[in-house]
């Protein structure tokens, strides 16, 4: 975890590069990447977004270890659900991001990587993704009630 904290911008950029390498069309889901042919290394919106992804996943990993599950603030969860729904994120996209995240973490920690570490990070991300997915499914129901 400390290795990742030391250079979040670098690993964040690597995460998004990995996502786009696997699924080039995913670039269009991010407003800050849509009009670019490549991933802009100095894009402040990209850096901020990627740092949030890392931070939330790290927090989920910590909570999973301490409490046995990830707990996300309701306001944050509603916002994440709304934004992901608005941008057309589907369940398979979460799996793609998970794979890219695990590759990035494995690259960052090098020899310290283990199957247990991969499983722990994967579980933390899965819980975070499941919470966002559940909120996305609530969002249309809430919108139609208004």
Automatic annotation (TrEMBL):
It is found in: Cytoplasm; Nucleus. One of its GO terms (cellular component) is cytoplasm. Residues 1-137 form the Globin domain. It holds the Pfam family Globin. PROSITE patterns: GLOBIN, PLANT_GLOBIN. The keyword Iron applies. The keyword Thylakoid does not apply. Keywords: Cytoplasm, Heme, Iron, Metal-binding, Nitrogen fixation, Nucleus, Oxygen transport, Transport. GO terms for molecular function: heme binding; metal ion binding; oxygen binding; oxygen carrier activity. Belongs to the plant globin family. This is Globin domain-containing protein. It comes from Hevea brasiliensis.
């Amino acid at each position: 975890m400390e290795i990742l904290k030391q250079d979040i911008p670098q690993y964040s950029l690597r995460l998004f590069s990995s996502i786009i390498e696997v699924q080039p069309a995913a670039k269009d889901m991010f407003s800050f990447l849509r009009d670019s042919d490549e991933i802009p290394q100095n894009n402040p919106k990209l850096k901020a977004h990627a740092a949030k992804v890392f931070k939330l996943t790290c927090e989920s990993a910590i909570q999973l270890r301490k409490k046995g599950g990830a707990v996300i603030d309701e306001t944050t969860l509603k916002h994440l659900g709304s934004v992901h729904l608005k941008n057309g994120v589907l369940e398979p996209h979460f799996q793609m991001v998970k794979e890219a995240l695990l590759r990035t973490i494995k690259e960052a920690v090098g020899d310290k990587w283990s199957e247990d570490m991969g499983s722990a990070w994967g579980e933390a991300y899965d819980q975070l993704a499941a919470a966002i997915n559940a909120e996305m499914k609530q969002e249309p129901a809430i919108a139609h009630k208004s």
